[in-house]
């Protein structure tokens, strides 16, 4: 079954055409190509379906004529995609050179079109090669997506579940405990002397310690328990059926032994220890955040106690529920914190328009920050820093408050335009998030139907169940959701059907290469078709020039955003811009 990977492998082609002469001509051309090729032929829809539905049917490529005596060739598309391969390249072969037909065929899911008049052996051979490359590319994307899902949920070093998967399991355990009273324990472990080993013996030694301890934990705990690496030298465990102080202490002793057992690396024997904090559910309640914070606090207490004894576990008491503040990472974080407190961050607005007629559909708010001494910091750098800090929530809530207040003031002159606000994936985990968005919207008198949140695709893949819940809650309050940076390497069409998504934004890297790259055109084609069938508007971002704009519109992607339309501008300029823009539009309408 390795037909995908060998460029010179025999190819199995299907030709569907009711004209015997045309079919024979195509067969001859195919045979003249560089690859060994076997061809099956069908003269009608019915014959084609028989071939496709054979139990062992396999075709690498299909050539399809539209006008068949018993119907439209395009009706066969679903059968081919389902019966053979969802990524099977399908080449439309039409008698007609009409641009519109060409565009329609691409839109209906064809990979490429050829007109019978322009057929040549070279052209046909090129289509075969491009079709094979296209299929390979689609298969690679699917594989990457699976890998990404795994990678987004596991720590690459130890292959243990990561923080995201751990919090998902913790949520589930809390929900289960609330329903049935099943007790469990949250255990936090922080290794002692790890930093010394890492610093003095190198990262390889540090990695060996983490891998060994990860493996020991996994081997010695039960299948039902979740063992995660949260980052650095921090591990967390969810232990089922730990029902009281006594069993918790027993577990802690066992864990301590596992951690303290010597580790051999590079001819040396390494010794590490662990500080352990434990929180019990339902003793400390059912809140995932609360339990985690309690276990964390207990773990730090154990670390502070720092004794050399074997029993270094601290059991969180009911009064320890204060979440502990993390350390700052120096000056930048403090500067950001101050900027949030003093509201000295700013948001620029970039319009999103219907590229056919210029109608303004919305504005995306993009953060801008002038560092007091270092000057402007790029938005993505700022966001990345904030996302790794304790400031994320404060930043997000400031953003909502700031932008919605501005939007409220402009709402009357904005017609139907929406405000689009970027939200970091991690905010989905915050329990009060949706409530806060709803409250802020209402407080500023903004119509929730005109508020759209932008979330990246990765956020949805990382924790689909949680994302789905949040999106549904938002939708209950009429607030819509856009998927940002769609297609950035990990295109995942499947889950779009399951989410109440109101918009998809194609990643700007595709749009940048769009006019030159057939692959990117293919991706945009597929997206246009998919979004049309799902009834989800598609937006191209990063539209930088008129050629790109024209090609997108011709392909059916009509909403756009980008420097070629308008750069992000300060809020104070939006009103004037809108007037000029609409004035120009009206002028053009009158002239037309
Ligand atoms: P994004 O959401 O993909 O935002 C679009 C980015 O593309 C913006 O960069 C915008 O200025 C830029 N852009 C717009 N048109 C074009 C174009 O034609 N060509 C090119 N090359 N770029 C164009 P910016 O403002 O630097 O923002 C970078 C990223 O930072 C955003 O990417 C978003 O992920 C994040 N971000 C920005 N503001 C916020 C915010 O308030 N909250 C959160 N959570 N993230 C934000
Ligand atoms: Ca965005
Ligand atoms: Ca984007």
Shape: globular
Task: Give the strand order, joined by hyphens, for the main sheet.
Answer: 15-16-18-19-20-21-22-23
Number of domains: 3
Instruction: Give the helix level as a range of percent.
Output: 40-55%
Sketch the major β-sheet.
8 strands, mixed, barrel
**Global structural class:** alpha/beta
Count of helical stretches: 20
Strand content: 15-25%
Q: CATH topology of the largest domain, anyone?
A: TIM Barrel
What's the mean pLDDT score?
86
* CATH architecture name of the largest domain: Alpha-Beta Barrel
Runs in which pLDDT lies below 50 for 5 or more consecutive residues are 1-6, 307-311, 318-329
Terminal residue distance:
58 Å
CATH superfamily of the largest domain: EAL domain
Strand element count: 24
Rounded Rg: 29 Å
Give every kind of bound small molecule, once each: ligand C2E, calcium ion
The CATH class label of the largest domain is Alpha Beta
